[in-house]
Amino acid sequence: VVVTAAHCVFTLEQKLVKNLIVTVGEHNLRKADEQEQNIPVSQVIVHPDFNRLGYMHSDIALLYLKYRVKYGHRVQPICLPHKDDKFVAGTLCVASGWGRVSEAGELSNVLQEVELPIIDRGTCSDLLKQMNLPPVASSMLCAGFPDGGKDACKGDSGGPLVCRRASGIWILAGVTSWGVGCARGWDVLEKSINERGSPGIFSNVAELMDFITQNVIPAAEPDRLPPHFPEGCSSHGMLVFGESGHIQYPQPSESNYLDNSLCMWNIIVPEDKIILIQFTRLDIESQITCDHDYVSFYSDKRELIGKICGDVLPTPLLIDSNRAMVTLVSDGSNTGSGFEFTFTAIHKESEAGSGCGSVAVLVKEGKIDTANYPGLYPSNVKCHWFIEAPVENVIKLEFEDFAVEFSAGCIYDAVVIYGDTEDEHQLANLCGFTTPSPILSPGNEMLIHFESDGENNFRGFKARFTFVPSAEEAESVIAEPIVLQPATPKNIPLDVCGFPPFSPQWLSGRVVGGEEACPHCWPWQAGLQFLGDHQCGGVVVSPTWILTAAHCIQSTNRPLHWTVIVGDHDRTLKESTEQVRRVKTIVVHPDFDTLSYDSDIALIRLDVPLEYNTVVRPICLPNSTQLLSSSILCTMTGWGSTQEGM
């Protein structure tokens, strides 16, 4: 089945459907690519609400193919979103297609891709309203840059808008639908009505998942699903439903699993139950971080729960949902004999669902407690709970009752709490009879271990965990990256860190491959001069301190040779906003290594404090426990070389 836009096929007469061909594995339209496949369409299903509830509402359709697509390294399926998935404003996603390369340009023969940030529905509706267009419906998703320059265009309709999850999986967030013009931008106050454009409008696939699942996976109904998983490897993920079952790969008649494989299994148990997974065999290429070959587990929202490799059977895994996805990924060498595990549907309240003897994976707010609570917990028990909140949320753990054998250092019975899945970021090590204070995770993950020895058992604990918006999310609402640049500074107190007076345009490149910064949008930027020549950048952290790289000043750290300039934009001009200070003290990190550049950081103390104003402000410093996920887009600034060798 192929997903496309309804407006592409809505007017197609049934007798012409047999002439419709879908091509996959394509890159250059003028060449026959290695894995190119041309498959006739057997049936077209258009969303029943297309254009019925409003202009371009529910612009989505399904194409049933006459033959199955053959998957390979150049032909793979996209993951579908959960119907509750939300893609927050600012998320960078990718649209692709062979459409026009400009509004009046030619169609492209080579597949094109473009990164576009998601725009929240309210902002998008306001923009369309100013153009006398109807507001954005829930079945629509907006993306683009205020200044234009990047967009999908005519000929891209029906193509994908994909967003990447923190787990690395790409999700089909949108289907290219419509827009006013191509890459025009929407600064409506400065353009005539004929020059105005709109953001790119895409069909919101998450909102339309009911239509897809009803037509693509009718076998999801319990009485129509097979009782066990079919043999073999499928990269598009085959469904297995039941109260219990087992999955193995490869089959006993085969030797090792193949190189360069991607196999997926989607497990569904009855809605009122959760999934317990227990491995009986494991032989996957061993590597410390399991980056070569591995078996991975995903929640019903396609968020990574964990991955394993090697030959040591893992602790049973308890997934707090009635759906889960399991994948096997292998690289180009060193395979093993594979794996085998059983899955069982259990009630949440059962002993097996307690997290003791297994790892309970919890993705919804709730409560946890020790086995037998409020009775005495068992001896020699190990319990594990892994809690995962939605992205941009943190986890708040509040104990309602606590009674665990006390010992100095909690070396006997203990509750140990981590802010990550690798047991590296310990948040608390608890025992005794005093109810602990609430604990907040640094990110959207929390791992809780409880272990008892052979004697002195007590009530244990009962705790509630909730998901709350993270501080980073609150800041992103205030400092929204997708904004129109105002003509006047924001009215923000001068000593408040992290808020520029002007909102910068989104920057997607580095300084090499970047673009000129808007004047004074980064008011904490400092320039370091050695004997009058620009040497390095720095950042304002207080009126008297500048943070910089140790390698910049380590070999020439005589303070009298250095000056610091802030409030500057064009170094070739003497600007009235500039403040120049001499350096009083230089403090290089004691662990700075000139060979490895470890601990490459230094502090510079100014002789005279800076005067904060609309163009000179401090940056906020992170907490020592603050983590940056791999999906966060950051911006760097400076006056360095714009290309290598310059």
UniProtKB/TrEMBL annotation:
UniProt domain CUB: residue ranges: 233-346, 356-468
Gene Ontology CC annotation, any one: transport vesicle
Pfam families, A to Z: CUB, Trypsin
Compartments, record wording: Cytoplasmic vesicle, Secretory vesicle
Keywords: Cytoplasmic vesicle, Disulfide bond, Hydrolase, Protease, Repeat, Serine protease
Main location: cytoplasm
Protein origin, superkingdom: Eukaryota
Single GO BP term: proteolysis
Domain named Peptidase S1: residues: 1-217, 511-646
GO molecular function, one term: serine-type endopeptidase activity
Disulfide pairings: C356-C383
InterPro entries the record matches: CUB_dom, Peptidase_S1_PA, Peptidase_S1_PA_chymotrypsin, Peptidase_S1A, Sperma_CUB_dom_sf, Trypsin_dom, TRYPSIN_HIS, TRYPSIN_SER
SMART domains tied to this protein: CUB (SM00042), Tryp_SPc (SM00020)
Entry keyword Zinc: no
Protein family per UniProt: Belongs to the peptidase S1 family. CLIP subfamily.
Protein name: Ovochymase 1
Lineage of origin: Eukaryota, Metazoa, Chordata, Craniata, Vertebrata
